Amino acid sequence: MDDTIFLHNHRLPWLGETAVMDYTIPSKEIFENEPCRINRLPISIYDLELGSANDPNEDILGKLAGKVTLLFNVAAGCGNIPQHAVLEELNRRFADNPDFSILAVVVDDFWCHGYPEFQDGLQNYIDGHGLSISPGQMACKYAFENYGSTYPFTSQTYGRYDKHTYDPKWVPGEKPTQEMSNFWHYLTGAYLADVNENGIPYQNEVAGWTDVKRVRPPDHKRGYAPLRGNFEKFLISRSGECFIRYGNGFLFGQRDRNNNLFPWLSISTSEDGIEDYRGGAVKSSEPNVNLESEMFSAPNFDFIEIIRFGVTHSLDLITKDINFMLSQTEL
Questions:
Q1: CB-CB contact of 291 with 284 (8 Å)
Q2: d(CA 95, CA 172)
């Protein structure tokens, strides 16, 4: 498996070796001090029950106790799926450190992506193809065969109270269709939220393609931020009681830890919701940050070099966070 990624059967060499270019890139020192929020839990994540893809009775979390672990939610065939290649690159960075692990936590909550074969979910794909495997094994198989992923996968969990769809009439959290797994109940902060008349926690969620656009809890009610897509990431401390949460677009080379667009990129969105990223002519709104408007605008510049820069920068940011967590014995 080489360091290119595949999306809809098109080679996207975002992860290839970056050639030496003569255009200007921003200093990493400008962005590497971006603040991270460390969240604290009333329990240890490592004490919760979660099986592996091959054995639902295996205590996969208990085996990680005392380590720093990067968890992320995943299915198969979603728009963020090429991040497996980036995560495997991160996995190789820490291959010689036994105190760090990556764990893919399988969900099937986002039936709203550009892979028609998975549009009705993992189990329907398995049944339709006559496979004798579990959803966790399906997600693991897909990642290994397409991206060479070597980190472990869990059995299927439920990351939301509803299935995320692109129906314009869909209202996030309006109609519960499943019971959220206890694991996600804690990591998303649902355990802190007030409960609505349907018996589920109030959500604070943006859904720009729907008629409602956004749902918020009523005044004086506390809500929580549910999983908004696959590949949200959670860096868990050794104790399992503290974590850093990252947006699902982080590590794709376009967005920072909080899913905000990197300041050296601009974006436009077509009527059908397709996002188009471009470099150059972008000024930072941050104080004391001066980005040249000509950035990344060399005449023979290939846009994939911007993405590769963003991927490398993102990997450096999360590496710094991992090393911080590894150095802490009281978190």
A1: yes
A2: 39
DSSP state letters, 14-48: GGSPPPP--S----GGGTTT---PEEE-SS-GGGS
Side chain identity, residue 183: F
255-274 per-residue burial string, b: 16 or more CB within 10 A, e: under 16: bbbebebbbbbeeeeeeeee
The three-state DSSP-derived secondary structure of 247-271 is CCCECCCCECCCCCECCCEEEEECC
Please state, as a whole number, how many other Cβ atoms lie within 10 Å of the Cβ of residue 147: 21
Could you identify the residue written with the tokens 């980036």?
86
Dump pLDDT digits (tens) for 272-285: 555 555 554 333 33
Instruction: Compute the distance between CA of residue 319 and CA of residue 308 in angstroms, rounded to an integer.
Output: 16
What is each CA distance from 156 to 75, 192, 193, 198, in whole angstroms? 9, 24, 24, 24
**Structure token digits, residue 296:** 């990344």
Separation CA 86–CA 104 (nearest Å):
13
CA angle 295, 319, 330 (to 5 degrees): 140
Q: Name the β-bridge partners of 242.
A: 40
Tell me the CB-side half-sphere exposure of residue 262, using CA atoms within 13 A.
Answer: 33
Which whole-number Å values give the CA distances from 13 to 29, 115, 242, 302, 307, in the listed order?
Answer: 26, 20, 35, 11, 10
The 10s digit of each residue's pLDDT in 84-113 is 999 999 999 999 999 999 999 999 988 766
Tokens 């004086």 label which residue? 220
Residue 107 in contact with residue 159, Cβ under 8 Å?
yes
Two structure tokens written together for 278: 């471009």
**With a threshold of 0.85, does the pTM exceed it?**
no
C-alpha span between 147 and 2 (Å, rounded): 9
Per-residue confidence (pLDDT) for residue 116, from 0 to 100: 74
